[in-house]
Request: fold
Amino acid sequence: MREIKRILVVGAVGQIGSELTLALREKYGADNVVAAGRKTKPSPALRDSGPFTWCDVVDREKLDETIKSFSIDTIINMAAILSAKGEKNPQACWDVNVTGLINTLEAAYDHNLTQVLCPSSIAVFGPETPRDNTPQETVLKPTTMYGVTKVTGELLCDYYVRRFEVDARGLRYPGIISAETLPGGGTTDYAVEIYYKAIEEGRYTCFVREDTSLPMMYMPDCIKATMDLMAAPFDGLKHHGDFNVGAMSFTAGELAAEIKKHIPGFEVAYEPDFRQDIADSWPSSIDDTSARAEWGWEPAYDLAKMTEDMLKRLKERHERGELYQAGA
Ligand code: AKB
Reply:
């Protein structure tokens, strides 16, 4: 496996991209990690801690130009339209998620890149998939356009590995919970919004039922999983673009109860909307034996530890007067 030297993170202004870029800058050197946004303004931390540029991954010419001008050898493609937003605009979801992915893989081949990382999601699963301890190899028949694009993405990654020897990797992220950048347009967004609303307003109206159980992961584990997979020797990998990664599973009601341990007056109402059907089609828990065996995956956070840290960090942001508003 060749050494990773200069990384381009596309979709760097989003929920995962913004924190991952900062962590990569720590590990690989600030100047060696180029953050690329499409439209949204970067935070000062992202903009000022290393190179920032504009690049829409759907625009192949711009992607080529960016690779050349920054001498990029590795791309992390975090640009995506998530499940709920994807149902409102399936064509745009396909364009960003699939055209963007093919552009990344083609660019990797044409520029002989060292590695590309293209994330997948638990959205690849569907109602016919076993819900508990969902296996690595199982039925992939999603009912959302987002899920369709993610299954396509996994197959394309594996195809480019086999056919063109591109080093393409990816993980099936569960819902990611974080205190810095809000997610946008996902089904698991309630598990982030609830913390913000607990701090800001002491009440939250949740858009899935109280008994809805989904796999989730705290951002530090998400960063660790992503960076550990990037660093894993290629020869030790039997899978490539589709690793199951688990960390914790809880119902919306269990999450509310955990927050109430810290904020006793916190009130939650449940008003399920169209996102309930999406949540019901996804697994409740994940079997990540392959990730553990092939690159040593091990999560550090459970619900209690995550909740303590989330509330502490959000309280600090609140006290600093930072403006944040969760939800629509
Ligand atoms: C979503 O809810 O769409 C995402 C995901 C699970 O990939 N957070």
Summary: The longest strand covers residues 213-218. The pocket of 2-amino-3-ketobutyric acid is lined by residues 82-83, 121-123, 146, 173, 175, 183, 186-188 (CB under 6 Å). The first helix runs from residue 15 to 28. The chain has a mean pLDDT of 96.
